[in-house]
Amino acid sequence: MESEYMFLINIAAILLAANIGGIISVKFKQPAVLGQILMGIVLGAGLIEKTELITHLAEIGVIFLMFIAGLETDVNELKESGKSSSLIAIGGVIVPFVLVGGAAYIVTNDLMISVFMGIVSTATSVSISVQTLREIGQLRTKQGISILGAAIIDDIIGILLLTIVVGIVSPESSSSILVVLWKISLFFLITFVFGLIITKLIRSLDLKINFEDKIVTYAIVICFMLAFMSEELGVAAITGAYFSGVVFSMTEHRHRVSHDINKIATTLFTPIFFVSIGMGVDLKSALSALGIGSILIVMAIIGKIIGSGLGARFSGFNKAEALQIGFGMVPRAEVAIIIANLGLKLNVISDQEIATVILMVLVTTLVTPSLLKWSFARIK
User: Measuring CA to CA, which of 102, 116, 268, 312 is 20 to 30 A from 55?
Assistant: First the structure.
């Protein structure tokens, strides 16, 4: 009989594998995150089951990752990147949607399948890019900040597109587009007001009491609360985590919070997150979709590079910087799989399309770290 404490061995094995994978990857001059994902694929091929506990720990990992990204964001630079992030996001939605949707229509001759696959290809999983940019010291560059802003915006556009399509396919299962817009607007309004209150409260309390030792705990509490609220309002939890980090970046405690959260996250939670991405890959399903999948993956990668790259060029970036931004917008992960699973439940797409999405997630996740590192190292 399996011990009820077997989860401890599983977590220990995941952390060891993440460490070894990261070391090997760095030896080959690749980002550590790439080795962690590959080790996850190995573990997921029958060695360790991806349990609910591992999934929850991984979710905390990506929330911490985005919280740290928010802490390392310069608010003034984020405001300045609003226009460029919007253009990058719009280009990164339109071009992949057209290319992937068009390719899917040529293959399937089914308009609804092609539209749904086009929507799947629009969502960027910025966590892979964030970790890679942090590893190579480029997260706080103009390109890094624009990638962060654009990824948030294109997720919102993707949610709106999905709402419209689901409303057409199954009106009773979907909120109206106005309700979705209201929820998203409410999230940003609450975040803005909450941010003002928190920053003012911390500044006033700093004058009266010294809670330097407790600030990290309060920061985690606020991060988790905003992440939960954003998820409940139809915006990804990582968006709430990111903006809670932005809030604390405007306080005098940003360095203490960033340092301590970094220690907690990189020791336990973020390695589990990246290994769990690999563990979630069903290699048999992915390989079964290799034919049609290859075409759609090429379109998905090219679509983000061209679309986001053009948006970057229109907003004043040079060719090298636009290419770096395009590479940073390539990865897809949990959002793409969630959208695809919804399509399967609504009988819009089949198991073959799901397998194609899994393959797209696998390939885009694996190629992005290397593309980003190469582009910043070689392209000046």
Answer: 116
In this predicted model, what pLDDT tens digit does every residue of 233-265 receive, in sequence order?
877 777 788 889 888 888 888 888 888 998 999
Q: Take residue 13 and report the two structure tokens written for it.
A: 């094995």
Its domain, for residue 344, covers 30-42+53-378
Tokens of 70: 């928010």
Phi and psi at 368, nearest 5°, equal -60, -50
Contact between 133 and 68 (Cβ < 8 Å): no
Cβ burial, residue 294 (10 Å; 0-12/13-18/19+): middle
Cα-to-chain-centroid distance, residue 105: 27
Cβ atoms 159, 174 nearer than 8 A: no
Q: Yes or no: say if 151 and 176 are a contact pair by the CB < 8 Å rule.
A: no
Sorted by sequence, the CB contacts under 8 Å of residue 293 that are 6+ apart come out as 286, 355, 356, 359, 360
CA gap 377, 371 in Å, rounded = 10
In a domain, 143, yes or no: yes
Mapped onto helix, strand or coil, the DSSP state of residue 315 is: coil
What is the CATH number for 109?
1.20.1530.20
Domains of the chain: total? 1
For residue 20, tell me if it sits in a domain.
Answer: no
Position 185 in a domain: yes
Q: Is the pLDDT of residue 351 over 90?
A: no
pLDDT in tens, 187-199: 888 888 888 888 8
The angle, 0 to 180 degrees and rounded to 10, between the axes of the packed helices 6-27 and 32-44 is: 140
Contacts 24+ apart (CB under 8 A), 289-294: 289/352, 289/355, 289/356, 289/358, 289/359, 290/359, 292/107, 292/352, 292/356, 293/355, 293/356, 293/359, 293/360
